[in-house]
């Protein structure tokens, strides 16, 4: 490292670079690029080297160079050190007042809106946004008079505001806590603290509980009994209403005398099976005048009945018990009519 930094140390012994020609500026710019890389990737060893050899103060001498690119390389090196937010670097900067050459270069640049001006303002803006308290206090306390008239950006006024807020927090710690609560718009509780109810529940002994007593969290005990009983009462009302409806349906079905149809299977080989309407009294009594075998069958014929017939196979018929009862009643009526016929008609029928 001493070989790498030898040209830098030799050219920055005074407040201005000893040689400010273009070749020397290019060489120093390359050296600063390597040192910047070391700050980013070799933090521990380069930190000891920078602090022991006072490298940052030597680098900031180059901000007075007439070559803008060399001054920007020096600013980039300091910006990388500030970006680490390491308190060792911060104390080193404050102890040696290393912001002074930066502010001097800013004032010498004047009102020109160029890359050097923007780079310096960006470094101060980073300190404000990241709220680096030690550097904020150091800049405001030591360099505020040189920066207070800069009003085309709000960076330095923001630094002053940050500094005043820090002072208020130090003077009134309670005010700091209240501001954090208002900023979050809600109360935050420490996750490690338990609620009083939970502590009471954890403190209760299991032996104190009666046999069969359920262990219920305190939050459930706080619920009112009305809220718990309301869904149960609604369920019971719906159940009662359903039971009454079922009873009404059963009563109507018993009054109508209808029963569920019974399904029968008829096994017939070569005979025909027919499903017809209930037979009349004439069809049940072959001796009646309306029967096909009676003499008056030509004049009086029974009305045609619809029937569904199938040949062979397995046929399922629907047999209603009410139809059987009606058939039995009609058979009884036919027998009673035969008994009431006059003797002359009986003799004719028998002949």
UniProtKB/TrEMBL annotation:
Acidic residues biased stretches: 203-213, 320-336
Top-level lineage group: Eukaryota
Compositionally skewed regions (Basic and acidic residues) per UniProt: 235-250
Matching InterPro entries: P4R3-like_central_dom, PP4R3-like
Composition-biased stretches (Polar residues): 253-273
Residue ranges, compositional bias (Low complexity): 274-288
Segments forming domain Serine/threonine-protein phosphatase 4 regulatory subunit 3-like central: 1-165
Location of the region described as Disordered in the Swiss-Prot/TrEMBL record: 203-351
Name of the featured protein: Serine/threonine-protein phosphatase 4 regulatory subunit 3
Organism the protein comes from: Ataeniobius toweri
């Amino acid at each position: 490292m001493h070989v790498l930094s030898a040209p830098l140390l030799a050219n920055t012994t005074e407040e201005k670079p000893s040689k400010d020609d273009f070749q020397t500026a290019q060489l120093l710019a390359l050296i600063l690029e390597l040192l910047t890389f070391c700050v980013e990737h070799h933090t521990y060893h380069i930190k000891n080297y920078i602090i022991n050899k006072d490298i940052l103060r030597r680098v900031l001498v180059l901000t007075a160079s007439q070559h803008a690119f060399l001054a920007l390389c020096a600013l980039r090196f300091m910006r990388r050190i500030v970006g680490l937010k390491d308190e060792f670097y911060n104390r080193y900067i404050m102890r040696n007042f290393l912001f002074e050459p930066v502010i001097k270069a800013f004032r010498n640049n004047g009102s020109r809106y160029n890359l050097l001006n923007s780079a310096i303002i960006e470094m101060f803006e980073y300190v404000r946004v990241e709220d680096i308290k030690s550097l904020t206090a150091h800049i405001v306390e030591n360099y505020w008079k040189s920066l207070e008239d800069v009003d085309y950006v709000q960076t330095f006024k923001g630094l002053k505001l940050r500094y005043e807020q820090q002072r208020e927090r130090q003077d009134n710690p309670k005010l700091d806590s209240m501001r954090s609560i208002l900023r979050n718009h809600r109360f935050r509780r420490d996750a490690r603290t338990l609620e009083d109810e939970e502590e009471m529940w954890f403190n209760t002994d299991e032996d104190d509980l009666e046999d069969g007593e359920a262990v219920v969290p305190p939050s459930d005990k706080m619920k009112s009994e009305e809220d718990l009983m309301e869904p149960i009462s609604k369920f019971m009302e719906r159940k009662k209403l359903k039971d009454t409806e079922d009873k009404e349906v059963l009563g109507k079905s018993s009054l109508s005398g209808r029963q569920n149809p019974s399904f029968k299977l008829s096994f017939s080989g070569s005979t025909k099976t027919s499903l017809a309407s209930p037979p009349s009294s004439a069809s049940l009594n072959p001796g009646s005048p309306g029967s096909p075998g009676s003499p008056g069958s030509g004049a009086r014929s029974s009305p045609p009945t619809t029937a569904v017939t199938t040949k062979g196979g397995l046929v399922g018929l629907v047999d209603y018990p009410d139809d059987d009862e009606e058939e039995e009643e009609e058979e009884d009526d036919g027998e009673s009519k035969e008994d009431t016929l006059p003797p002359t008609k009986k003799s004719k029928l028998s002949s």
